[in-house]
Design goal:
There is one protein chain. With about 350 residues, this protein is of the alpha/beta class. The protein is built from eleven helices and 16 strands. The protein has helices at about 5-15, 50-55, 95-105, 115, 120-130, 145-155, 190-195, 255-265, 270-275, 275-285, 325-350, and strands at about 20-25, 35-40, 60-65, 80-85, 110, 135, 145, 160, 165, 170-175, 185, 200-205, 220-225, 230-240, 290-295, 305-310. The strands form four sheets. A five-stranded mixed beta sheet has the order 1-3-2-4-5. A five-stranded mixed beta sheet has the order 6-16-15-13-14. The chain has a four-stranded antiparallel beta sheet with strand order 7-12-10-11. α2 (about 50-55) links the parallel β2 and β3.
């Protein structure tokens, strides 16, 4: 959290070598449901922050870290339903493999199974979602080594990178999240300057889509899917294309918050209705019980997908005096998440009976 990732991972590694199961405090002595979350030994952004969804719920949460040095415990910690919270990233590959090998004989319902989680990385997602009506997602399978990107950088005056890809482009290090290393590159000289600031061995390159509105502002939406149903999580708007909620200045602008409030209050009859076909197609193909999507609207009215994963932060920590419209909306998808876990557990009990 202080920005020293390597030190944090070193501390985590030392602790996980001796202890892999952690129980969060529960509001009640007799929890109405016991959830076992299956995590990977990685940085804090690569596991679903499930605590936010279950807080103040009377549900017991246990997090089991699945690490290379230790096999899954036999028997597993007693639970009513399990959920995979590890992500489709290099750091999580071994954990997902171990969980997948045990999935067919898991003693309780297993939400977000690894076989579906493993479709979410950038070089696979656009192939998964390609062809959905009124949905646009730039190809991200152009994984380039540093040497290849460097050759682009020295091609002075060249405007085309590949047969179907020309400047401007979006470039980011492979495996990066939350905008780390993300840049819009307009020409070969800018690519050379970009490489001077990055040391990573591999990069993704994709086409840049101008998704600004008629007023010149960019709007980026986060939508959370629970059990196939979409919910509004937040909306950020700014003059810059590379928007994150924290850099959009939402708390400083009443006008921006009013537009976000309208988006959230009218989501079901507005945004979700406009993009019903794209949202339904995406939920069907991704197939996860819980995931999030960061998206926008193109100038032609299609749904533009930036990223889909199971680990984006969904929370209710914004100050209610500044964002009074958020707590009721957060309560809706948190309640749906709990109901999803409870329904899975109830179905399993009825099946066993």
């Amino acid at each position: 959290m202080l920005g020293d990732k390597q030190a944090g991972l070193a501390i985590q590694h030392e602790i996980l070598n001796s202890h892999q199961l952690f129980r969060s405090p529960c509001l009640t002595r007799q929890p109405r449901l016991r959830v076992l979350a299956l995590a990977a030994a990685t940085d804090m952004g690569s596991n679903t922050p499930i605590e936010f969804l279950l807080e103040e719920s009377g549900i017991e949460l246990m997090i089991l870290y699945v690490i290379p040095e230790v096999e899954l415990p036999v028997p597993l910690p007693d639970h009513d339903v399990a959920i995979v919270i590890a992500s489709d990233s290099e750091d999580c590959r071994d954990a997902l493999r171990k969980i997948d090998q045990a999935a067919s004989r898991w003693p309780r319902p297993l939400l977000n199974p690894p076989e579906f989680v493993c479709n979410l990385d950038r070089d696979k997602l656009h192939r998964l979602l390609g062809g959905i009506e009124r949905l646009e997602i730039p190809a991200n399978d152009r994984r380039r080594t540093r040497a290849v990107v460097a050759s682009i950088a020295i091609s002075r005056g060249a405007c085309r990178i590949a047969a179907d890809l020309a400047f401007p482009v979006i470039v980011r290090p492979r495996g990066s999240h939350a905008g780390v290393g993300l840049a819009k590159v307009d020409d070969a000289a800018a690519m050379a300057r970009y490489l001077d600031t990055r040391q990573e061995p591999q990069f993704f390159i994709s086409r840049f889509v101008d998704y600004s509105g008629g007023d010149g502002l960019f709007r980026k939406y986060r939508v959370v899917f629970v059990d196939g149903r979409p919910y509004a999580c937040h909306m950020a708007l700014a003059e810059r294309w590379d928007i994150w909620y924290l850099n959009a200045g939402m708390s400083e602008s009443a006008a921006k918050r009013l537009e976000e409030e309208t988006f959230m209050r009218t989501f079901d009859i507005g945004f979700a209705r406009r993009h019903a076909t794209a949202l339904a197609g995406m939920a069907d193909r991704i197939g996860l019980d819980y995931f999030t999507v960061d998206c926008a609207e193109t100038k032609s009215g299609s749904l533009l997908i930036f990223e889909a994963d199971n680990t984006a932060v969904v929370h209710n920590m914004d100050p209610p005096d500044v964002f009074p419209y958020k707590p009721p909306r957060c309560a809706r998808y948190s309640k749906r998440s709990r109901r999803c876990c409870t329904s899975a557990s109830g179905l399993a009990r009825r099946t066993r009976a």
